[in-house]
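Troubleshooting entry. Yesterday's outputs looked truncated, so today I'm pasting the complete records for two proteins to confirm everything comes through intact. If either block looks cut off, that's the bug. Protein one:
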Amino acid sequence: MENQMREEADALLRQGGMRVTRQRQLVLSALLQAGGPLAAEAVAECIGDPAGCNRSTVYRTLAALEERGLVYRRLGADGSALYALRREHHAHVLRCLVCQRSFSLSQCPLEGLEREIYETTGFLVQGHSLEFTGVCAECREKAKDRRV
């Protein structure tokens, strides 16, 4: 499994026009293994400190990967930055303000808007993040039960 993740990380780096380095492989492998957004600190903890990949290296690597469009950053419920791999098929987040659970939308509601932006302004959108906040069905149901 580790070899497969390293190969996928290498392919992502080449796709982004980046040189393959051990640090970049480690950061991308941690994000691949997580399968969802991680804080930079969590990425550093997943990696440990092999090959000089300390916390500052993780932060610099994440910034470089974000600049190249390989990862994206969004804010977590507590306001901290979370990083995830940018995939062609991505999910948008629905976050419950009561229980703090997150859910994903299966479709991107902004694809048409990105196309319209390009057609009207010439601006090529490289990515976006979208988070809806509200109250999930389970929390709404619990609140309704308490009122009875």
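Protein two, checking that the full record survives here as well:
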Amino acid sequence: MTYRMTFRGAAVPAEPGQSVGAALVAAGILDWRTTRGSGRPRGLFCGIGVCFDCLISVDGVPGQRACLVPAGDGMHLGDDARHETVGHGEDGGHAGDAGGPR
């Protein structure tokens, strides 16, 4: 059985056991939020819930880590308007990024 989720009005298929982040990447969607300071795109990075780059709104609840939320049939996914930067530099970048802490 394939699940059907929606993101920005488009259908996104997902398989049982797949995370929301994995389903988005499999559908060719590589970023779904931007950093607060410079507007750089962010999506799946570590894939294990540590980096917080993949925050997304799931069924209207913001701040969900796409890599940890199991995909479900009928989910509505949206941009995370809070632009969380937990554990990162001032622009949400990683230490190795051009916009990260120096």
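Both blocks look complete. Sanity check on protein two: The two ends are 48 Å apart (CA to CA).
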